[in-house]
Design a protein that fits this description.
By secondary structure, the protein is an alpha/beta fold. Helix content is about 35%, strand content about 25%. Strands 5-6-7-3-8-9 form a six-stranded mixed beta sheet, sandwiched between helices. Helix 2 (about 90-100) runs parallel beside helix 4.
């Protein structure tokens, strides 16, 4: 069965600038975070998939079809672009209904679908507001509603949380996860890494128009064997003995084969290791043998932000 999205040797030029350069990529169901610095080619890639641009070289395939030869595939695609383009005098429900009708639905069904989509994004109480009266967050949620009203299998979201308040962001993150759980392919382009990490573990990182990494965050970080992990350990102890107990744990850990260095930072023990899994298994045993209780166990180098920083700065 063909992948939802397949890019083969895709190149896109704007004058002398290569926005995408020999990009090879396959994407299927689930939520996928699309990451990269400004100018890396993320929005260009989304526009190519959405049919707003043609590649200068290479092929774009949706479900195995060339979308320009089989434009019917676009009926199963929903797009929330980064830029706003509204009919400002339309009310929210009118706007989403009108765009849903363009997908071929009759008026009554389009209105029903638009109402349901506005409800999913938390905009049903404000569906009667004119677009020009809406806050930026409301406009953003309305854009997402029109992208999902026709129940597409492929959803492209370019900076979908831009301008939304914290409550709306949390609700939309949950919605995006639900869309992926429903079996859709959901591509989310965002600069806010911790929000992407709360939506998915699957990421695509591009830089200078080329693919830098693709896959599960933990697996990708594990491939960087030459890059040690930091692990920070907090101890459950009273104030008088906290420093002494932290020193005891640090000394025991540095004596093992897995730990390259250890230090005490703000009362916590911070170590570096190149084998995170083995260290995670060994550290609790060492702490128990020392009659110490771990209060926290974190790795500031095992998150998406650390992986992203390493990939784009190499």
């Amino acid at each position: 069965m063909s992948a939802t999205i397949a890019l083969r040797g895709v190149r896109k030029l704007f004058g002398q600038v290569r926005a995408l350069d020999e990009l090879d990529l396959e994407l299927d169901s689930g939520v996928i975070g699309l990451l990269g610095p400004n100018g890396s080619g993320k929005s260009t890639m989304i526009k190519l998939i959405a049919g707003q641009l043609r590649p200068d070289a290479g092929d774009v395939r949706l479900w195995g079809h060339d979308p320009f030869k089989s434009p019917e595939v676009f009926r199963d695609l929903g797009l929330c672009p980064e830029q706003d383009r509204f009919y400002e005098d339309m009310r929210g429900l009118e706007f989403v209904t009108a765009l849903t009708r363009l997908q071929g639905f009759r008026a009554a069904e389009a209105r029903e679908r638009a109402t349901r989509a506005l409800g999913r994004v938390g905009m049903e109480p404000y569906a009667g507001k004119r677009m020009r009266e809406m806050s930026r967050g409301m406009r953003q949620r309305t854009k997402i509603a029109q992208a999902i009203a026709h129940d597409p299998a492929l959803v492209l979201l370019d900076e979908p949380l831009s301008g939304t308040d914290p409550v709306a962001r949390a609700d939309l993150i949950q919605l995006i996860r639900e869309l992926g759980d429903e079996g859709r392919c959901v591509i989310v382009s965002s600069h806010v890494l911790h929000e992407v990490e709360s939506m998915t573990r699957e990421v695509v990182v591009i830089r200078h128009g080329r693919l830098r990494a693709q896959g599960d965050i933990t697996r990708l970080r594990g491939l960087l064997g030459d890059r040690p992990y930091r692990i920070r350990l907090g101890l459950m102890s009273d104030g008088d003995n906290a420093v002494a107990e932290a020193r005891r744990l640090a000394a025991a850990l540095i004596g093992g084969a897995l730990v390259e260095a250890a230090s005490i930072i703000d009362g916590a023990v911070e170590i570096t290791t190149t084998d995170l899994d083995a260290a995670c298994r060994e550290i609790p045993t060492i702490a128990r043998d020392l009659d110490l209780t771990l209060a926290s166990f974190t790795s500031p180098d095992a998150d998406l932000e650390s992986l992203y920083r390493y990939l784009v700065q190499r």
